[in-house]
Design goal:
Layout: H1 8-35, E1 46-51, E2 54-59, H2 62-77
Antiparallel strand pairs: 1-2
Helix pairs in contact: 1-2
Protein backbone atom coordinates (compact mmCIF):
# COMPACT_ATOMS: atom_id res chain seq x y z
CA UNK A 1 0.00 0.00 0.00
CA UNK A 2 1.31 3.45 -0.83
CA UNK A 3 1.22 6.17 1.79
CA UNK A 4 -1.27 8.95 1.02
CA UNK A 5 -3.69 11.25 2.83
CA UNK A 6 -6.45 8.66 2.85
CA UNK A 7 -4.52 5.88 4.58
CA UNK A 8 -2.22 8.06 6.71
CA UNK A 9 -4.06 7.35 9.99
CA UNK A 10 -3.91 3.61 9.30
CA UNK A 11 -0.15 3.88 8.73
CA UNK A 12 0.40 5.78 11.99
CA UNK A 13 -1.75 3.37 14.00
CA UNK A 14 0.01 0.37 12.49
CA UNK A 15 3.44 1.83 13.29
CA UNK A 16 2.43 2.64 16.88
CA UNK A 17 0.99 -0.83 17.41
CA UNK A 18 4.05 -2.49 15.87
CA UNK A 19 6.44 -0.39 18.00
CA UNK A 20 4.48 -1.24 21.14
CA UNK A 21 4.39 -4.94 20.23
CA UNK A 22 8.12 -4.95 19.50
CA UNK A 23 8.90 -3.22 22.79
CA UNK A 24 6.74 -5.68 24.72
CA UNK A 25 8.25 -8.70 22.95
CA UNK A 26 11.79 -7.47 23.63
CA UNK A 27 11.00 -6.82 27.29
CA UNK A 28 9.51 -10.29 27.73
CA UNK A 29 12.52 -11.83 25.98
CA UNK A 30 14.91 -9.98 28.28
CA UNK A 31 13.02 -11.13 31.37
CA UNK A 32 13.07 -14.72 30.11
CA UNK A 33 16.83 -14.52 29.48
CA UNK A 34 17.32 -13.03 32.96
CA UNK A 35 15.47 -15.99 34.49
CA UNK A 36 17.78 -18.31 32.55
CA UNK A 37 20.80 -16.50 34.01
CA UNK A 38 21.81 -14.38 31.01
CA UNK A 39 22.06 -10.69 31.89
CA UNK A 40 21.51 -8.50 28.83
CA UNK A 41 20.03 -5.01 28.95
CA UNK A 42 19.99 -2.84 25.83
CA UNK A 43 17.23 -0.50 26.97
CA UNK A 44 17.74 3.23 26.58
CA UNK A 45 16.70 5.33 29.54
CA UNK A 46 13.18 6.63 29.80
CA UNK A 47 12.38 9.15 27.08
CA UNK A 48 9.41 11.43 27.55
CA UNK A 49 8.09 14.69 28.84
CA UNK A 50 6.62 16.16 31.99
CA UNK A 51 4.15 19.03 31.66
CA UNK A 52 2.85 19.68 35.15
CA UNK A 53 -0.10 17.31 35.53
CA UNK A 54 0.75 15.23 32.46
CA UNK A 55 3.71 12.87 32.34
CA UNK A 56 4.59 10.44 29.60
CA UNK A 57 7.68 8.23 29.62
CA UNK A 58 8.69 5.50 27.21
CA UNK A 59 11.51 3.01 27.51
CA UNK A 60 13.02 2.40 24.10
CA UNK A 61 14.82 -0.83 23.29
CA UNK A 62 15.92 -2.56 20.07
CA UNK A 63 12.52 -4.26 19.90
CA UNK A 64 10.93 -0.85 19.36
CA UNK A 65 12.94 -0.29 16.20
CA UNK A 66 12.44 -3.87 15.04
CA UNK A 67 8.69 -3.43 15.55
CA UNK A 68 8.70 -0.16 13.60
CA UNK A 69 10.54 -1.82 10.73
CA UNK A 70 8.12 -4.75 10.71
CA UNK A 71 5.14 -2.36 10.78
CA UNK A 72 6.53 -0.42 7.83
CA UNK A 73 7.16 -3.65 5.90
CA UNK A 74 3.67 -4.91 6.68
CA UNK A 75 2.14 -1.63 5.52
CA UNK A 76 4.14 -1.65 2.29
CA UNK A 77 3.14 -5.27 1.53
CA UNK A 78 -0.61 -4.69 2.04
Amino acid sequence: MKFNKKNGPVFVKLLLFAALAGTLFWELSMRFLKIMGIALDLTAGPIGFDVGALQMWLSINPGTFIGLAMGWLLFSKI
